[in-house]
Amino acid sequence: MAEIRAEMVANVWKVVTAEGEQVSGGDTLVILESMKMEIPVLAEDPGTVTKLAVAEGDVVQEGDLIAIIE
Amino acid sequence: MVESGLIESVLVANRGEIARRVLATARRLGIRSVAVYSEADAGLPFVREADEAVLIGPPPPAQSYLDQAAIIAAAQRTGVQAIHPGYGFLSENAEFAQRAEAAGLIWVGPPPVAIELMGDKINARNLMAEAGLPVAAGTAEPVTDADEAVAAAAEIGYPVMVKAAAGGGGIGMSAAAGDAELRAAFETARSRAERFFGSAAILLERYLSPARHVEVQILGLASGRVLALGERDCSVQRRHQKVAEETPSPGVSPVLRGHMLAAAVRAGEVVGYRGAGTVEFLVDVPTGGFVFLEMNTRLQVEHPITEQVTGIDLVEQQLRIAARGDVSFAEQAVKPHGHAVELRVYAEDPSRFLPSPGTISEWSEPAGPGIRVDAGYAAGNQVTPFYDPLLAKLCVHAATRDEALARARAAVADFRIAGVRTTCRSTPTCWTAPSSLAAPTTRQWSAGCGPDHSQHNEERAHPQAGRCRRRGAASGRDPRGDGG
């Protein structure tokens, strides 16, 4: 199980994946936006997205859970 | 007392360091100033340094610094005469300039028609070519699909640069060395152009490499005369974003300078330019030739280095031209002295170049002869994720390039910022490395100090960082907060 967490304060600009989806390592899960920069959050390893903790428009703090991949 | 014929009051429609910069000149000239700010910026220095400050909305730019009606209402409520847009946000928005003028306000910027003519890169390119300026081989009409792009590239010759016609700030821009790369670059550019600039128009231009990015500061007067105040070299870039600038350019000979300044004056004359503007060129290093790139119809981020070598306050000239059409100095008296460099301090992780918002716990600026810091923040301020990451500009002036760089190194060591990660220390290690002193920089990436392709090294080392893209605010024609 891998917990994907936000590396910084950011706005959730786009949610690319959905709960239950199969992802490969390197797939984009969500795209954060901070300081005019888009920051894609990637799956490190292949698996299933069992939890998606954010929605578009949310503000995440550093360390906040974004998704769980099992 | 305000000098007769000058503006008596001005609203600054911007934030951070550039708002503070404009307010400083207003204060010196005795001009009443009004700041506008979003809820995220209430604690920043520019808000308290204005004579009056008006809250215009919540943090997202579309609801505050890009909200034209809110800004014009603030100007009317506070009874100011003029609006200074700074750079980025609404500064190159012809519609906003028109609305301000229609509301009876003086627009501290060029005529809206000049903004429009230069705002579309295809149009600007064609116009400048007609006027006799050199332009790179490229497309004179918008390219509408990938097949057309490949056909155009066959004529232009690889490598080519793919750009959004309405774009800016490097957004959606990428170079391609072959058909496959071009198809990918084209699709990226088109989707980003549509999303950020509301126009899918794409142009292709021959990509010059190695090249220097050199720009000329101009001032257009009411009489129709256009003055050129020397050049700035902005070759040190990362992901098409400027990182450090200097003047004079170490790669421009007096003869080449003469040609470039004349071309910049011609560009301004062609569009009936008034006020401060910057004409950007690429200098082809192998041939020493140059081509027109684009014109920025506003004050440029890196304007302070021109001020340092000329002793001219460019914001004062902007206000003066807007009010009475002339400048405060005699043209013949303009004689640049010495060398000036600017280092941009971004709130970014210096190794991965990821944004680093947070609370500034310590902020201590360097001081001394020739040192100027234009900063938007102070200790205790919050750096929020809503705006561009530029925290400050460290500008250093000395008699020679070597002295300026030595002084810059010392100043960097004295610049203490804690609480957020910044590029303050990393930029100069690249720029002032002995190798770059011996071989003056061409357009390059700060990440590895190498030529353009070190971008790919950066991507390999940090896949996450390498995939980040600079983007603009959600709306507005030119979303550059950082002036490009």
List keywords for this structure.
heterodimer; A: 70 residues; mainly beta; OB fold (Dihydrolipoamide Acetyltransferase, E2P); 4-stranded antiparallel beta sheet; 8 strands; globular; B: 484 residues; alpha+beta; Rossmann fold; Dna Ligase, domain 1; D-amino Acid Aminotransferase, Chain A, domain 1; 3 domains; 8-stranded antiparallel beta sheet; 16 helices; 33% helix; 24% strand
What's the gist of this structure?
The complex is a heterodimer of chains A (70) and B (484). Chain A has 70 residues and is an all-beta fold.
How would you characterize the overall build of this protein?
The complex is a heterodimer of chains A (70) and B (484). Chain A is mostly beta strands. Chain A has one domain (2-69): RNA polymerase II/Efflux pump adaptor protein, barrel-sandwich hybrid domain (OB fold (Dihydrolipoamide Acetyltransferase, E2P)). Chain A is 0% helix and 54% strand. Chain A has no helices and eight strands. Chain A has a four-stranded antiparallel beta sheet, with no helix packed on it. A four-stranded antiparallel beta sheet of chain A has the order 5-4-2-7, with no helix packed on it. The model of chain A has no long low-confidence stretch (mean pLDDT 93). Chain B has three domains: 9-108, 3-Layer(aba) Sandwich (Rossmann fold), CATH 3.40.50.20; 132-206, ATP-grasp fold, A domain (Dna Ligase, domain 1), CATH 3.30.1490.20; 211-452, D-amino Acid Aminotransferase, Chain A, domain 1, CATH 3.30.470.20. Chain B has helices spanning 16-28, 45-49, 68-78, 94-102, 112-119, 121-130, 146-156, 179-197, 254-270, 303-310, 314-324, 401-414, 426-431, 434-438, 454-461, 463-466; strands at residues 9-12, 32-38, 52-57, 82-84, 106-107, 160-164, 174-176, 202-206, 211-220, 226-238, 241-247, 275-284, 290-296, 339-346, 358-359, 362-364, 371-375, 382-383, 390-398, 416-418, 469-470. In chain B, the strands form five sheets. In chain B, strands 13-12-9-10-11-14-19-17 form an eight-stranded antiparallel beta sheet. Chain B has a five-stranded parallel beta sheet with strand order 3-2-1-4-5, with helices on both faces. Chain B is globular. The interface between A and B is medium-sized, with 16 and 25 residues.
